[in-house]
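Methods: holo model generation. Sequences were used as deposited, without trimming of termini or removal of tags, and paired with ligand SMILES retrieved from the corresponding compound records. Each pair was processed once, and we did not select among multiple samples. The sequence and zinc ion SMILES for this entry were:
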Amino acid sequence: MERPGSKLVVAAAAVLSSKPMLELPAARAVFDAIATRDEAIVAALIELVDIPSVAAAPARLEEAAAAVGRQAAAAGFAVELWPTAGAPVVFAEIPAPDGAPVLLFYGHYDVQPAEPLEAWRSPPFNATVRDGAVYGRGAGDNKGQLLAHIEAMRALRAAGGCPVGVKLLVEGEEEVGSPNLAAIVREKAGRLRCDVAITADGPFHADGRPMIVFGVRGLVYLEAVAEGAGRDLHSGSHGGWAPAPARTLIQALADLWDETGAVTVPGFYDDVRPATAAELELARRLPAPGPAGRGANRDAWVTLMFQPNLNISGIAAGYAGAGMQTIVPARATAKLDVRLAADQDPDRIYGLLRRRLAADGIEVRRIAAVPPSSTPVDNPFTAPVARALEAATGEPPWLQPRLGGTTPDFVFTRILAVPSLIVPYGPPDMHHHAPNERLALTALRRGVRSSAAICLALAESGTAR
Ligand SMILES: [Zn+2]
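and the model returned the structure below.
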């Protein structure tokens, strides 16, 4: 019996179980060219890491954009800096040879704040090479990974030229939720036209194998506020007859889930697209990530990427310090996040939660909203990209249907309407967002080889939309 998607499972299994390392005939010369530039590649990464492009410091963001632009230009790209309402976007292009597919690489030059500074063994914005890694804020997330694309072009050029069209889109606001990315992608959709988008960000699998991820969950982040008397009150004099915002908020929040943890808001699950048999099969093959603690439920982990989740991120009211203070607090607040599954709409989910909490006298404010995004696993680019990753790393990639987290992937799948593959180049122990962030030189080299091999494999497959 033919199950829906079973052909895809067979194809994916073939990719996963291919024993001999796949050879890309043209790759050898390119990999050799990469090997000769080890020191230069590290120097280029150090130049980028040394610019403290934290979102809160606009001048340094422009400086970082300019540095990325200079490095791309030196590698053969035609470079433009596009202004946005926030940090500039670097757009760089290598035109496609006649009839060749066009590939868009996305990355970001902004970084997380480096705090707590005292936890760093070397200064976060003065990159240090030790123990075979570049240490510094942004080394892995995402400067080293975006640099891989630039250096790959350099190597391809040295070995005779890039066989596909390549566009590079590097923004400077990813770590604050990409507030201006959708607008610029919409405005420049013509210039950004491509056959496939590829994002190298985040860590690859804990077992060291490369990974292709085919989508992300979306996010709605909101703040819920229950107001009381306008000031804290004596709980002996007022408790029981004055409004009690902490109680109001807690009761309203508790009502959002049933005893199994399912969300009780009517309509919440209406638009959730069920996982296909093929997606479930791929998810089941994946080794679960790091320790989740006692009572962790692997089945729940497998389905996590296909289901939404409503979570309390934070809750605050009244006195929680040492000893006691007997008050009826004036207000209570909570931060809630919803991870959205395909095809939930952030506006609709926000509206459902707002109405439901308003009925309990709670005001809700939206802080962030990012739609979910998904690309069919059986898109025409999976096979060549998987083949490229195997040629570059020596191992076939894991195929992961979805990321539990959120990235602005929807700008590619929804605005540009192209398949989008997330192909992380960072090792799982790169300490991204944390002190002592680092990128192992082996991973940096592997990333450059991967970007180059992806170009070669796409050219060879002749895959275009
Ligand atoms: Zn990050």
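The chain is about 35% helix and 20% strand.
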